[in-house]
Amino acid sequence: MKVKKYSLFGLTIATDFNFVSKLSRGYFKPDIYFKVVQKPPIDFSLTNEVFYDSFSTNRSLKGKFCFYKLKKWDLLRFNGYSDYYINDKQIICHIHQEEYNLIEIQFLGIVLSYWLERKGIPTIHASGVNVDNNAVAFLSSNKGGKTSIAASLMQKGFHLITDDILPLDLVDENILCRPGYPTMRMWPDEAEYFLGHSDDLPVVHPEISKKRVFVGLNDFGRFDNYKSELKCIYIPKRISKKNEIEIKPVTPVKAVLELVKHSFSPYLVETMGWQPRRLEKFATIIKKVPVKQLIYPSGYRYLPKLCEAILNDIKQSQK
Q1: InterPro entries recorded for this chain (predicted)?
Q2: Could you say which of 25, 69, 90, 123 is the most buried, measured as most Cβ atoms within 10 Å of its Cβ?
Q3: Are residues 224 and 287 both part of a single domain?
Q4: What's the total number of domains in the chain?
């Protein structure tokens, strides 16, 4: 099978895996080689001590995923489904259940997030949009609507940076957002609102109804595949019994806690001993980038007004 190169999260990935999600083409020397195999690259004994076991469970009531430190590999095991052998240059996926294929969502989520964290690049669960050549991020909070906010701004002509994972680079005096890939994940009612259809869209996960929405030419909106400077982080919160929009700054302590809270696999990061360096980076980020609470009424009809409030807030912050 032909090996292709893709660009995502500021990396060039070489692989022969066929993704359903639309990915940007890569042109540079690969940072990572990714492949899926039928046999593991090494003999792995279950007697190895589990380094980390996630709190969530699957249907077998075993940990959803666990982590092992091997001699030449880090191993992320999704119990009953797949193993990911990870080092600085390779990610090898050994599948257990080919008929229950979750490789794409695993690789584009926890696996790549872990690889970036391993390299000292913090990743947060957020959408990002390029507004006037600067990035604004919307943390993923419970029913916060980060994707709907990003899609609403895209309808106004602004470009998507990422829909799910946002890696942050600290370069000199700037905080830079690494771009994800030109695909969004929407619930069927979101897709109906923004695209006018949803039944024909591929599902993200076989057990949930979320759909993949492709971004770019002849699709929905536009995508920016380059690093952009982060200018503001919003923590969105939808309230059904509220008619007004409120944007207010949060304290530095709360801002750091929110970044930790909305990290990918924060317990794994803590287990690996990376939390101190991560907290130091988060402290630097909030000194340079304002973090604000965004409280707004629930309902698609409020989204245009919400976008207007966000854009006005950004303009005020730049004065």
Answers
A1: P-loop_NTPase
A2: 123
A3: yes
A4: 2
